Amino acid sequence: MSKVVTLRLPEATAERLKKVARRAGRSVSETGARSIEEWLRQQEFADIEFREFQGQRLACLKGSIRLWKLIMAAQDYDLDPARTAEHLQLPVHRVQAALNYYAAYPEEIDRMIAENDAVTFEDLQRVLPSIRLTTIVVQDDADPLTP
User: Fold this and answer.
1) In this predicted structure, what is the pLDDT of residue 21?
2) Closest-CA residue to 100 (of 51, 61, 52)
3) Is 49 in a helix, a strand, or coil?
4) pTM to 2 decimals?
5) Are the beta carbons of 35 and 52 closer than 8 angstroms?
6) Quick one: average pLDDT of 43-63?
7) Is residue 143 pLDDT above 90, yes or no?
8) What region, left, alpha or beta, does residue 54 occupy, with left being phi > 0 and alpha being psi -120 to 50 degrees?
9) Which residue pairs from 103-108 have beta carbons closer than 8 angstroms and sit at least 24 positions apart in sequence?
């Protein structure tokens, strides 16, 4: 559910907003609402910023990695901030900031992880025609009888 809120913007700001909306192919209302939502989230989570990737605005750790990628790595460590920080070579408090954001907006991050997981080799091959698939057989050293 949305609510209509009226704002008075300086003329130059309104023109800049219109220009950004036009470039994004969105309405001024949608662009303004998204901008305010991002600003509010950045106020609530100081280590978070939003950047554009292929036409999508994504939450990122300031000056660093996209949050969905960080959380995907953190899931391999049961969302343990210290182990994730060590793996990603980031300060623990920054990883904790990402985990705090994830706790507040899990659907947003889970959707991005699901989209990533859905990418197939054929999808990659369309974008990168010279890519080749390599199969590696891993032998279990613990059992010398395993071929």
Assistant:
1) 93
2) 61
3) strand
4) 0.81
5) no
6) 93
7) no
8) left
9) 104/44, 104/45, 105/41, 105/59, 108/59
Q: What is the DSSP letter of 50?
A: E
Task: Give burial (CB, 10 Å; 0-12/13-18/19+) of 13.
Answer: exposed
User: What distance in Å separates the CA atoms of residue 134 and residue 147, rounded to the nearest whole number?
Assistant: 19
Largest CA distance in the chain: 77
CA distances from 99 to 39, 65, 90, 96, 147 (A): 19, 13, 13, 5, 42
Rounded to whole angstroms, the Cα distance separating 23 from 31 reads: 10
The mean pLDDT value for 77-87 works out to 98
Q: From CA 69, how far away is CA 112, in angstroms rounded?
A: 9
Give the model's confidence band at 138: pLDDT under 50 very low, under 70 low, under 90 confident, else very high: confident
> Would you state the torsion angle of the CA atoms of residues 134, 138, 139, 141, taken in this order, to the nearest 10 degrees?
140
The residue behind tokens 């974008």 is: 127
How many Å apart are CA 135 and CA 6, to the nearest integer?
58
Average pLDDT over residues 53-80: 95
Angle, helix 106-117 to helix 92-104, in steps of 10 degrees:
100
